[in-house]
From TrEMBL:
Residues 73-413 form the Amidohydrolase-related domain. It comes from the Bacteria. GO terms for biological process: L-histidine catabolic process to glutamate and formamide; L-histidine catabolic process to glutamate and formate. 4-imidazolone-5-propanoate binds at residues 90, 153, 186, 254, 330. CDD domains: Imidazolone-5PH. SUPFAM superfamilies: Composite domain of metallo-dependent hydrolases, Metallo-dependent hydrolases. Its cofactor is Zn(2+); Fe(3+). This is Imidazolonepropionase.
Length: 418
């Protein structure tokens, strides 16, 4: 048994009460101004004031002691929405958007997601793995210790399975915990142009059964949006996924209010994601169903769109999580600190609410809260040491990486010991 003591730290963490935090509760966190963490075999054995943790502790039992020199410690970030598995970037498309072309117009012309689909289809699996691994390590350097990665750049069975194999391999060959999500319903591929119902049939009868049979994913996601997949098509896909044992997620109301948030509530989806155009009526339905709103402020920033109404959602009682949406088109960033800062400065979340959104609620959004998302005894010792006095430093020091060290299961996987 390996025992490690981390002391002389300012510890900030949400406290897990067995469900996502919502409303006023999302802003309540525990603070230990001179705190300590005791880790045994990669899990938290004790957390509290340094005096409490040291009481009754035999120094002979401590294999490593680390003085954190008063720095701020928070749980490792959980990034619950990424498209990190892709082959090539889309800088030319970025320039088109700067010139005023709308995102859905680029998609209609065969760009956007469809451009990435073409590059992923022609890229061999090993090359795709190396590119994805590099981005996963970049995310880890910004403090992400657990992440979801979606497929959805294959849009055919063989390539979707190739992506999911890569995604699962990232979880095996990096320190990160990785949650794979099947998203064959990310767009309608070019070979099915104007035949979206036929493509949905293919998802239901071929693609989804193959994913389930090979146990390649934990969740199924669908892009429910005007010009992509309708409410009824999305309902069919998610109902089949749930029946097959996968959790339901929805890209909902990103550009238009088509009722995706309401469908998420109706289906009992774990999360609805984006929600820039979601109506208040459907947000209230999400609050009643307990569906988590996964908000992606870096996407609104990149697309130069109004930000999702995070403040309103919290006030309505919707549990809110934050994610990067890391992808080559609409949000090319792996930085959860950047997302945290946008949430505080542009979406009206308090620092405490943003901390919960980027850790505990995000962990619930990917079904990992039993292990990660908060510094609670028995959970994995996944935590960050920040060059800051409080989590406010994440937003305050704009454009910088505040992470001094990243610990995963009690092991330092990035940075240096203070």
């Amino acid at each position: 048994m390996i025992t490690k003591l981390f002391r002389n730290a300012s510890v900030f963490t949400p406290q897990d009460a067995g469900k996502p935090k919502a409303g006023a509760d999302q802003g309540r966190i525990r603070i230990y101004e001179r705190g300590a963490l005791l880790c045994r075999n990669g899990r938290l054995a004790a957390l509290g004031s340094e005096e409490e943790v040291l009481k009754g502790l035999s120094w002979d039992d401590v294999d490593l002691e680390v003085d954190l020199e008063g720095r701020c410690v928070i749980p490792g970030f959980v990034d619950p929405h990424t498209h990190l598995c892709f082959a090539e970037t889309r800088e030319r498309e970025f320039s088109l958007r700067l010139q005023g072309m709308e995102y859905l117009e680029i998609l209609r012309r065969g760009g956007g997601i469809l451009s990435t689909v073409r590059s992923v289809r022609r890229t061999d699996e090993e090359a795709l793995f190396r590119a994805t691994r590099d981005r996963a390590f970049a995310a880890m350097r910004f403090g992400t210790t657990t992440m979801e990665i979606k497929s959805g750049y294959g849009l055919e069975t063989a390539t979707e399975l190739k992506m999911l194999r890569v995604i699962r391999r990232i979880g095996r060959e990096t320190p990160l915990d990785v949650v794979p999500t099947f998203m064959g319903a990310h767009a309608v591929p070019e070979e099915y142009r104007d035949r979206s119902d036929a493509y949905v049939d293919g998802i239901l009868h071929e693609m989804l059964p193959a994913v389930v049979r090979q146990e390649m994913a934990r969740f199924c996601d669908v892009f429910c949006e005007k010009g992509v997949f309708s409410i009824e098509q999305s309902r069919r896909i998610l109902a089949a996924a749930r029946q097959a044992g996968l959790g339901a997620k929805i890209h909902a109301d990103e550009v238009h209010d088509v009722g995706g948030a309401g469908l998420a509530a109706e289906m009992g989806a774990v999360s609805a994601e984006h929600l820039l155009a979601a109506s208040e009526e459907n947000l209230r339905a999400m609050a009643e169903s307990g569906t988590i709103a996964v908000l992606l402020p870096a996407t609104a920033y990149s697309l130069r769109k109004p930000f999702a109404r995070g403040r309103t959602m919290i006030d309505l009682g919707v549990p809110v999580a934050l994610a990067t949406d890391a992808n080559p088109g609409s949000s090319y960033t792996e930085s959860m600190p950047f997302v945290f800062g946008l949430a505080v400065l542009m979406m009206g979340l308090s620092v405490e609410e943003a901390l919960c959104a980027a850790t505990l609620n995000a962990a619930y959004a990917v079904g990992m809260a039993d292990r990660v998302g908060s510094l609670d005894v028995g959970k994995q010792a996944d935590f960050l040491v920040l060059e800051a006095e409080t989590p406010a430093g994440i937003a305050y020091h704009a454009g910088a990486n505040p992470v001094v060290a990243v610990y995963k299961k009690g092991e330092r996987v990035f940075g240096h010991a203070p």
